[in-house]
């Protein structure tokens, strides 16, 4: 058999049982013209002359293409982190400037997560139907626009509206992880997706450092405006983002998928694969892509329901810890002192305004830095123990840290250490979930699957301000116990997930998904 290169990939020039004249028209043994439509039908006859996107991505390896994509999607992740971190800084500032109550402070946070929850499935559906690149481009423009408008909000109602719209746009940022994961070889996928959290931690640290410089002199208006810088940078590079080759194949755009794979080969300095690009398992993409109800088909129902709960508990714990970091320092010094002071009714407009001091920002920075060791710890165990056990163990470790926080103490060092460990652990859980979720869903449902999980996470994040910012003021032990119980229940959910994706390829079609009794992601 002789193979010749055409457009950067290989095509069959001569095939047993057929003759190919120089004009390129295929003839069978009786010199009858063979139509091009039977090309796909012949895949099962000569499988060695075909390849899938999964095989191509694994063969082309990790190289300069993935490095550039890491920086691009990492910038999106960094911008998202800054918008989330600012919530723990904005609420106390509004509390002092506009004399809002504790419940209004919690509402300032909740409205952002409400926008994220309502939009997550919308963005996932949009990404599965029209591509990851187009959705991320629109998200970046909206996020920058509404983030900038928030900085000039004249009243509390305006800040609620604009921050809600910011949350609506943020709902698309998890699709950057979907895009990134679809270009990663199987062996490097888990580590690279977890390492992407470095950009999240970097964004959180940068936001705290920015607040430390800006808040004492310029105030929260300028902090909101300057925090949109990474959003503008990401919006400007969006036109150069690659579209997912898996999305192109799933939507029947094979030529565009080939162009993307050829670019990967060129950037990574690897030769393009021999053969013809085909859909995995020779099954065409389903006629309806990105439908929410397909997440509840029998083969995916149990996985989807458990993942929704796990993501909800993870966000409830993570954002709760972020919000209550400064609250714990303030509340414990009052409630746990030798001469406790009775706190005012939290439902009234507070006159007990307390601006965040340099020590508060430094402690917030220290607890934020905990995400880096959390990332590396997750990398060390996620391939060895698997995705499910990694999430379960880290949830249990987080619950143990919460049990130590139940102890009422004035010692700031003890609180900082416990919050440091808890922050690193729960950050690792979040990243393990981001690794597992894109792996367990097929290409045609991957974006909407991640989007639905993100929506459920926002539901948990919507509730957590009323525990971390309101309930904590009256009972530290009760509020921290709630987080411990939520983490333990989530750990049980992780262990009973029906599918372990460690070492498995990303699947392309729903029809290749098996029931709970067997692996839903085929090992190539």
Automatic annotation (TrEMBL):
Key words, A-Z: Membrane, Transmembrane, Transmembrane helix, Transport
Keyword Transmembrane: yes
Region (Disordered): 1-23
Topological relation to the membrane, as annotated: Multi-pass membrane protein
Statement: the UniProt record of this protein carries the keyword Signal: no
Membrane spanning stretches: 106-123, 135-153, 193-214, 220-241, 305-324, 391-407, 413-436, 480-499
Domain spans labelled Major facilitator superfamily (MFS) profile: 69-505
Subcellular location: Membrane
GO molecular function, one term: transmembrane transporter activity
Protein family (similarity comment): Belongs to the major facilitator superfamily.
Record's protein name: Major facilitator superfamily (MFS) profile domain-containing protein
